[in-house]
Design brief:
tRNA nucleotidyltransferase, 20 helices, HD_domain, two-stranded antiparallel ribbon, nucleotide binding, P-loop_NTPase, alpha/beta, 409 residues, transferase activity, disordered N terminus, Rossmann fold, 3 domains
Length: 409
């Protein structure tokens, strides 16, 4: 694992590499930055979906197609597309597993949730890589949503489309998926291409094919400028999930939401979560609950006892009508599930504030700490390796600024 910030390579050098170096050279260079990418060589795929064999073979074919498709794009968009073509299936290197088909009894090779898992891994790692920050959000969006064209061609959810294209024009997602379809050996390519064309038309209909969408502006316009910030935030999440399509239903559901909230921090140790939590608590007159505050020693039983006491304190605070900033790493979904269940039991909306610092930066910050606040580098490394994806369809993701705006009276 990379634990320090790499020497920054200029965007011009990387651009030249992407334009002129072979796939093998680009793959080797990126594998030094993204360790799990190297596992693509030995990661299998289901033969009828990917007759070309391993993920490595697929990436080779997709990169060649992307180079041809990107030839006429503006420079930055071309390099974003080429990087995404190399990285889009990195999540397959740990999400791939055998699964028995319930209907046929056959064992299939599947890679569930690999797009989102891959994007989250890259997001955490980006600041430790020698890749331009200016390309980050666009590349991560392409990796995270490269399967969404087919889903959107079925659901036609304009709010999910706006969310997916908020950092990139739909054209880039279309071109990556076109390269992805062409860069495989499969029998269903005609149907996949037809769904992709439906996605392109959907983007053109909602004016996000040639440019990124403006989700919050569209939502604010649809709901009226006088809608409260917390109403818009809760409505945005419901619309993206497909709970309803008309923002007016959001006004009806959330026109007088409780000012009480559970805000769950999420990130590696040393990422700056606690600093943000303290700032939020001060601005909102909320109580901070942190399992570490209940821990008297560092062993398994003490950590378990501290967690139980923190959950009890969360219930007590919610019962008293207080808003809570739950300050913990929350890198695993089972931890998040418990906070989610408590918030639901008290009928209090829950949102997540992700603090996505790279492991290298987290380790550097952690080394400046003293006493019990400082943890060994190996703890942060383990958290990074075990970080489970935050699912956009499950949680409302808030920035710290949005939390303040939604809770301020």
């Amino acid at each position: 694992m990379i634990v320090g910030k790499s020497i920054q390579t200029t965007a011009e050098v990387i651009a030249h590499r992407l334009d002129s170096a072979s796939f093998e050279e680009n793959f080797a260079w990126l594998s030094e930055q993204v360790p799990r990418l190297a596992l693509a060589v030995e990661t299998p795929q289901q033969p009828e979906w990917h007759g070309e064999g391993s993920v490595y073979n697929h990436l080779n074919m997709v990169f060649a197609e992307a180079r041809a498709l990107a030839a006429t794009l503006p420079d930055d968009e071309r390099y974003v597309l080429l990087l995404a073509s190399l990285l889009h299936d990195v999540g397959k290197t740990w999400c791939t597993r055998p699964r028995e088909d319930a209907k046929t009894g056959r064992t299939m090779i599947v890679s569930p949730r690999h797009a989102g898992e891959g994007a989250q891994y890259l997001q955490l790692l980006w600041d430790d890589m020698s890749l331009p920050v200016a390309w980050r959000d666009a590349v991560l969006s392409l990796v995270a949503f490269h399967h969404h064209p087919a889903r959107l061609a079925e659901s036609f959810n304009p709010w999910l489309l706006a969310y997916v294209t908020r950092c990139i024009p739909g054209r880039l997602l279309y071109l990556l998926e076109l390269a992805d379809i062409r860069g495989r050996i499969a029998a269903d390519k005609a149907g996949a291409l037809e769904r992709l064309e439906m996605f392109r038309l959907f983007c053109e209909e909602h004016d996000c094919y040639e440019r990124p969408s403006s989700l919050d502006h569209r939502l604010q316009t649809a709901m009226g400028n006088d809608s409260a910030t917390d109403t818009r935030l809760l409505t945005r999440h419901a619309l993206i999930r497909g709970k309803f399509l008309d923002p007016a239903q959001g006004v009806a559901c959330f026109h007088a939401p409780s000012a009480q909230r559970v805000v769950m921090m999420c990130g590696l140790a040393g990422s700056g979560k606690s600093t943000q939590a303290r700032s939020l608590a001060e601005a909102l007159n909320a109580v901070i609950i942190a399992p570490d505050d209940f821990r008297t020693r560092d062993d398994v039983k003490a950590r378990s006892d501290a967690w139980r006491q923190a959950i009890q304190a969360l219930k007590q605070a919610l019962g008293q009508g207080r808003s809570v900033i739950y300050d913990a790493c929350n890198v695993r979904q089972d931890y998040r599930n418990n906070i989610e269940r408590v918030a639901a039991a008290y009928n209090v909306p829950l949102g997540v504030v992700p603090v996505m610092t790279s492991p290298g930066d987290a380790m550097r910050r952690n080394r400046q700490r003293t006493g019990r606040d400082r943890v060994p580098d190996e703890v942060i490394a383990r958290q990074f390796e075990s970080f489970e994806r935050l699912d956009l369809t499950r949680y409302a993701f808030w920035s710290a600024e949005e939390v303040v705006a939604s809770l301020r009276h």
